[in-house]
Amino acid sequence: MATAKNNTLWNLESFIDSLVVELDKARETLAVKAINRPLTYTVKDVGLDLQLFPSYNGEQVQFITAQPGQSGASKLSIQLGSITDQQIRQTSKEPITVDTKSIDEIEVDNETRKTLRKMGVTSVDDLEKLEKKNVDLEKVTNKKVSYKTLADVLQKSKRGSLPPSVGKVSLSMSGNKPVLLVEGDNLHVDDKFEPVAVVNDQLANIIASDKKQIMMEIRPEVMKGGKNELVMTLDPYAIFRLEINN
Description:
This protein is α+β, with helices and mostly antiparallel strands. It contains 6 helices and 13 strands. It has a 4-stranded antiparallel beta sheet with strand order 6-7-11-10, with no helix packed on it. The chain has a 4-stranded antiparallel beta sheet with strand order 9-8-12-13, with no helix packed on it. A 3-stranded antiparallel beta sheet has the order 3-2-4. A hairpin with a 2-residue loop joins strand 12 (about 225-235) and strand 13 (about 240-245). Helix 4 (about 125-130) packs across helix 6. The longest helix is centred in the first third of the chain and has 22 residues, at about 10-35.
């Protein structure tokens, strides 16, 4: 049986952060429960006093119940009350849906993920809200979170939810220059990046581009009879290769 002398040293800030994260998880559970139950925890004014030995491992706080006769335990008092579905909706975030990507699904290191959770960030949607409000996460977290890394993660996540698809490729002539038109969905979706097209290992000239189509000019000598290869880089997270029969 562990006692207080076995505890690891901890500071107040980390201890409070650990408790807040666990409370946030409890509120998220209540938000889901409120969908089916208008009222939960109807028992009021119930107090519970526990004699415990707290243990902290640097990330989590755990407790061991004191046995009869053991001394040096801490007293933990818990008061239970009721909360309605309206109160939950007013004070809690909407539950994560099947279309929402959790921060557990994005490519960040564990330290960054834990830091974000302490700030109440549990999904990519939360990160996007902070981005729109121009929150400087590097300053807020004392450089524990890299804004550039998160920006790349957000961009990759957005592209993952909007994958490009090609429906039709057509070739026409504009004067003496071949013009290739690629039609589809979610082609050019990021204005920060200009699409790059390479036909038979030769760079093409992009004339126009949007979500639905990309038009490019090709030097006459580049296109050849039979099979031609088109490689397109729409942005850093979307590259595709097509075989075109001329």
